[in-house]
Amino acid sequence: MAKKKKVLYPVVFMIVITVAFTSVLAIINEVSAERIQQQSKLKEQSKVLYAFNIEFGETGEEIIRQYNQFIEERKVGNRTYYVRKANDEITGYAFKIEGAGLWGSIDAVLAFTQDFNKLSGVAFLNHSETPGLGGRIDEEWFQEQFRDISLDVTATDPYLIFKPSTGGNVDTISGATSTSKAVLNIFNQNIDVILTETKGDVLNE
Amino acid sequence: MNKKTKSIITMGIWQDNAIFRQILGICSALAVTNLMINSLVMGLGLIFVTAFSELTVSFLRQYTPKHIRMMVQTLIISAYVIMVDIFLKAFFPAMSEALGPYVGLIITNCIIMGRCESFAQKNPPGYAFLDGMASGAGYAIILLIIAFVRELLGFGSLFGINILGESWVSWTLMIMPPGAFFMLAVVIWISKNIFKEKSENGGVKV
Where are the domains of chain B? Predict the structure, then answer.
């Protein structure tokens, strides 16, 4: 503590130590940035595959291979969407959507058949719902309910309705009513936008 | 193992345990203990950050002007926390998501600041590092005990492996925040009773 009474020393000390730590962190960040980006890309790809009901392997390489084989990314306006292809023939479309959950925003992927008459499936990308309650939306049984649901744009009822109401097609999560409602709202609203607006743009490409 | 080493370890893990003796680090203890795996990762993160922060603070203690030591400590702690955060994001993205903001919030965990200030400022690096490990381990052990009960009763599983079978009706209360409060209170209650006996025998002074 010899120089503690001087003014210059603490300032210089603080600058030196800040620069030192910041540089170390900057290097670590630089080294890992690519890996982190790959990880989030991989997650997104596996969710798109899941929404289309395409089986994929556990490892990163397999997911990328499957993804490149079946999925093509295209753009309409600023929005990226995913096209499912089998032997150069389009068999489906998927869109990334976002909306307000109970505690935070929920990001998901909605996949449709090529004629937009059916929902092929859904997958959740990010959410901040309570683990064990609303957080169960990303469990398989909940997501599987949304497979092959017929969509009728001319009907007055919402596309997705909870059982046991008339015309109900999906179950709620017991103990997580608010999250379930929020999820259904997000889906219904986005399906409507996609069927009435985005669909036209996509098919005209 | 000399006397000081032994005393640092027992103090950190048991007699001066951050959670049930000093009531520090409660916020994260309540938040992440609904699953064993979350608690384990959080505990390991805290052991790493506390140990290395104390080591660094101890190395720099003779060169650090006293009146800016808190700034220096905060800087050191945050650097290590960011390292943990980046590490989780790069190698365990699922874990990083499950813990959400709590990894970043290790910075504000009073245990680290408390140990840097009260121990690392006065002791050589070797002991400081050990003290960080012991304090962090004390925190991790309590988190795992709480998570053990919460996950077992709340999900019927441990580390995600189903233990109690399909017929088990999960206690939703245990998963929700009140479950954490009840469990933490029980842990503190039990430990209070253990220490009461000891101090009557002339053991630990409270």
Answer: 18-200
